Amino acid sequence: MPQTWQAAHDELTARRARLNKEIAGYPGPITGCDAQFNHLLERRAGLNAELARLSEMGSGTDTKTLKRFVEACPYLNGPGGEDDK
Fold first, then answer.
1. Fewer CB in a 10 Å sphere around the end CB: N or C, the chain?
2. Biggest alpha carbon distance in the chain?
3. Do 39 and 83 touch, CB atoms closer than 8 A?
4. Could you read off the pLDDT of 24-81 as tens digits, one per residue?
5. What is the pTM assigned to this prediction?
6. Degrees (nearest 5) of the Cα angle 22, 46, 82?
7. Residue 22 and residue 50 in contact, taking contact as beta carbons nearer than 8 Å
8. Residue ranges of the domains in the chain?
9. DSSP code of 73?
10. Half-sphere exposure of 43 (CA within 13 A, CB side)
11. How far apart are CA 51 and CA 46, in angstroms?
């Protein structure tokens, strides 16, 4: 679990980069598999929203507020976060 604003930002940015790489390497349309691709796009949109929310908070965010953000962020919870599921 990230302990600083910068660590949370770096983790979300790294997850977004991995997800963008996965989306870029996704094969062309396969009948019945569009749901998987759409799920990747939804996860990317969610990561972008969380990064924007974190950026709005700013790097001077107090520890208590940052802890609440990290606990509520689905992409920072658990060992791999949602984007590794």
1. C
2. 48
3. no
4. 998 777 655 678 888 899 999 999 999 999 999 999 999 999 999 999 999 997 544 4
5. 0.75
6. 65
7. no
8. 5-84
9. -
10. 25
11. 9
